[in-house]
Amino acid sequence: MVEVIIYRNPLENPEEVARVSIEATVVGETPTAESLRGRIQDERDPIISEYTDGRELLRYLAASYSNGYVMAGYDSEESRRVVEELNDAEYFNWAEESGLDTSL
Predict the structure, then answer these.
(1) N or C: which end of the chain has fewer CB within 10 A?
(2) What integer pLDDT is reported at residue 67 of this predicted model?
(3) C-alpha–C-alpha distance, residues 62 and 20, integer Å
(4) Which residues contact 59 (CB under 8 A, 6 or more apart)?
(5) CB 1 within 8 A of CB 25
(6) How many helices (H) and strands (E) does the chain have?
């Protein structure tokens, strides 16, 4: 699974508050997770509605949810590689081979 995990208090006492997959599935029962579920489903969301693929969504989450109090990171090195290092052709081949529906 390719996921971004969002933690609150990452340096002192890390607490997972949401986990988002490349298929745009949000796991967690926190306000952060609920908010992300709503934003992903809201076609009028000014930022997330612009994304058409789960890779774009995970890049956005990894960057925007990293501010000190909250930290986002990939669940594994393989997830980071898929999202950050594969070029478009390699990524689309990976998505097809994995059988995942990454379109939003």
Answers:
(1) N
(2) 78
(3) 10
(4) 83, 84
(5) no
(6) 4, 4
